[in-house]
Amino acid sequence: MIVKRWMTTKVMTVQKEASIQEALSIMKQASIRHLPVVNHDQKLIGWVTDADLRGVLIASMLEELTLADVMIRKPIVASPDLSMDEAAQIMLEKRIGGLPVVEEGKLVGVITVVDVLSGFITTMGMLPYSSRLDVEVPFEEGFLSKVLEVIEKNDGKVVSLCHMPPRGEAGDVYSIRMKKCDLSPIVSALKREGIKVLTGDS
Question: Is the pTM of this model over 0.85?
Answer without folding.
Answer: no
